[in-house]
Amino acid sequence: MKILTMAATLCLVSAFAVPAHATDESVQAFCDTEDCVNTLRHLERRANHGSTLAAIVVATAYANGDGVEQDSAKAVRLLRRAANRGDPASELLISNWYREGVHLAQNSERADMFLARAVGRDYNPALKHQAMLWLQQETPELDAKAIALLEQASAQAHVPSQYFLAQLYMSGVGTDVDLVRAGTLLRNLAISNYKDAQVYLKQVIAALDNDDAVSEEYLASLTAAFDVERIEVFGGRNSPEDVLGFIESNFRRANIYNRPGTGTRIIGRLCGEAGPASNCISRSVRHGECWYDILPDLVDPSDGC
């Protein structure tokens, strides 16, 4: 199966979108046009001038030789620079590289350190990944901590964490079986037709239907998820150069990251990059969270966006 390398980085749906075991044959190059390559050059300059978003895009390009000559040293240097500026997505990706021993010598301690930093910044994909690592240890103490992290990410509307947590409550892995909690999580996921949420919700409803402790009102609220009218909009899939061009055009319009930065006080910097959010330009282009939200669905968002 081909891996959507550049697209996975652009959407930042997961810092682990490119498996460590991916081979040249399994990685599909996306930046294979002159326009795309030129845009990457512009983004590299933005990265050198302080943009963590540009840094993580270009770092992955160098890591995989996509649009540029493969260069692990440059990839690591760019990503470290972004991580040193407190970018949690970069910290999570570096953690993965250390853990898997790709582009960096394998080092579990440093992998844990960078992951802890991303978790400390309340970065939802990092919360989910740490939870998964703890669950693999199969100890009651770490299981409880893992469930707490997943609940934290779920409360922050991180859909992949909600889906994973619902499965744990259904199966009793890492926690006691709690079909009521699973049903609550799955209800909203089913309304949005997320993955197999509807299938799992039907199983939960069937199981709870025989439980006298569950109210009819609650069961009705779960069943109502199947009656919600959905309006789906289908559009054309943007090319990678369109996506990269969109990022670069926003940098140009905002007139940011086009000259060397001066520490963390960068005029016109993006909110969330290089320090507090005062006097910054909002990343919110459309959906109110970050620039990544406007990028096309080139990868499965279930991986952690």
Give an overview in words:
With 305 residues, the protein is mainly alpha-helical. It folds into 2 domains: 1-121 and 233-305, no CATH class; 140-226. It is 54% helix and 1% strand. It has 13 helices and 2 strands; from the N terminus they run βαβαααααααααααα. It has helices at residues 5-11, 34-48, 52-64, 72-84, 88-100, 108-120, 124-137, 140-155, 159-171, 179-191, 197-208, 216-223, 240-254; strands spanning 3-4, 27-28. A two-stranded parallel sheet has the order 1-2. Helix 4 crosses helix 5 and helix 7 packs antiparallel against helix 8. The longest helix is centred in the middle third of the chain and has 16 residues, at 140-155. 41% of the residues are buried. Mean pLDDT is 76; it is low at 1-25 and 261-305. Keywords: Signal. This is Tetratricopeptide repeat protein.
Compute the number of helices. 13
> Between the first and last Cα atoms, what is the distance in angstroms?
21 Å
Radius of gyration: 21 Å
Number of strands: 2
Arithmetic mean pLDDT: 76
User: What is the strand arrangement across the widest sheet?
Assistant: 1-2
Query: What does the oligomeric state look like here?
Result: single chain
Q: How many discrete domains?
A: 2
Strand content: under 5%
Label the overall shape: elongated
Question: What would you call the structural class?
Answer: mainly alpha
Helix content: 40-55%
For the biggest sheet, the summary is: 2 strands, parallel
> Low-confidence runs (pLDDT<50, min 5 residues)?
1-25, 261-305
The succession of helices and strands, N to C, reads: EHEHHHHHHHHHHHH
